[in-house]
Amino acid sequence: MLMGMDEERAANEVFKALADPTRRALLSMLGEEAQPVSALTSHFAMSQPAISQHLKVLREAGLVSELKAGRNRIYALDPEPLRHAAEWLERHTDFWATRLDNLGRHLREKHGKDA
Amino acid sequence: MARTLRFEALYPYPPEQVWVALTDPQAIGEWLMPNDFEPRVGHLFTFRTKPAPGFDGIVQCEVLELDPPERLAYSWKGGGIDTIVRYSLAAEGGNTRLVMEQSGFTGLKGFMVSKILGGGWKRMIAERLPAAAARVEGGRYHAEPDDPLSRCHD
Description:
The structure holds 2 protein chains of 2 kinds. By secondary structure, chain A is an alpha+beta fold. Chain A is built from 5 helices and 3 strands.
């Protein structure tokens, strides 16, 4: 339930990037292996510049990094921002898990074992 | 799209006793947070805790549903979320099965909840982020029988 402002801003970038189905598909492919833009483009009915534009949005969100391999540029998934999203959910669920454990302890202290 | 977090617990006390713990302000303060709850539909109240970056430490609430000793719901706004928290209590022998759901996640949080708890995205995280994924999987909190929160609080 808690999230710092910087974290919130960074997460906003990430989830804006993820809001587009083409970009999600690109991330799934890059999750399999790092690839050049030409290989990625072959999976879509879209021009290479259009795919490059999507990759730019993903790069700006920190989800994808660009590696130079000779004359080629290879794109790779950077999972760190996704880890932050998972951690937010984990903190939030931990909050309630802890509170419900507290509730059990509260009941035990109040009513003992005579229930 | 799953946009509801669901928690389940079994307490070895009857629903009437659990209900008191859910609706007595002092009791609530002991297990959840300090508050000025009153068991009255429409009552506006707050939970107060330590402020944190992006969160002033205040959760604004309104009692929405009160059906002793079975159902309780209140709104839960604060820290960037605007949600509803619902408790339902069911007697099981002398025990109480408590289901707590937090729903209504919208915008960014809703997107996170739905994507991370949803299918495909979780699988992708699972492939790329084994450690984080273990926690998300373990924290599924969707009342599967093997749910770690479904254990008995004895």
